[in-house]
Amino acid sequence: MADAPRKADRADRIDSSVPHSARIWDYWTGGKDCYEVDREAGERIRAVFPDIVTLARVGRHFIGRTVRYLVEEAGIRQFLDIGTGLPTVDNTHEVAQRAAPESRIVYVDNDPLVLAHANALLTSDPQGATDYIEADVEDPETILRQAARTLDFDRPVAVMLMGILAHVADYDEAVSIVRRLVEALPSGSYLAVRDGTDTDPRYVKGLADYNRSGAVPYRPRSPEQVAGFLDGLELVEPGVVSCPLWRPEAQGAGATEFSPLYGGVGRKP
């Protein structure tokens, strides 16, 4: 595992007076790693957009489906999961190593609370490996350099950007970050992206209320902008769509429901 601050240092860096997206997401999905300020922010959004809890679960199911596709159909055995969030059920390494125990996964986040729980993300199958990097999505060069301690960038890697690019204020900068990550990958690698869109006015209003709370803003973009992150890649069918419609499974949550979360997967030629 990457060098990390002592537990006391981590605790000092966790600000429980300001809501945080990872902790709010944890609250919506039934977790306990959140504070009153996070629960209050989560309830304010739910008052405007009551489907937010379902949306959070839809997002988790999308991650599971993409990882299963990448392992079982695309043959991927290496994952770089940026913007990890708090550990929950069916984290990337659990889904991947269930199908292919030799899979290697590197998680990346800049939230000290996620770092404090990183051991839950490092319970690798002995045939594979997991690591955790404390870094910011806006510094892809550092992420790639540190990830190379665990991942072999001469072999295909799947980069997971789930709900993180909307935290990058400038769209062109977000696109640049994606391009710099993809440029470092060999042919046959994959990019999986999921983010909130501006397709539901209630969702947009709920996020506007959230952004006024003092937390790091989350900016929904158009479906076309989300699709733009995958430009130049070979899109996996059905392309960039509302997440419940991406390769739905019989047991998936909300398989026939529209969602303002959009996502897709692309292969680097």
TrEMBL record:
This is SAM-dependent methyltransferase. GO terms for biological process: methylation. InterPro entries: SAM-dependent_MTases_sf, SAM_dep_MeTrfase_SAV2177_type. Keywords: Methyltransferase, Transferase. It holds the Pfam family Methyltransf_19. Coiled coil: none annotated. The keyword Secreted does not apply. It comes from the Bacteria. The lineage of its organism: Bacteria, Bacillati, Actinomycetota, Actinomycetes, Kitasatosporales. GO terms for molecular function: methyltransferase activity. The keyword Methyltransferase applies. Transmembrane segments: none annotated.
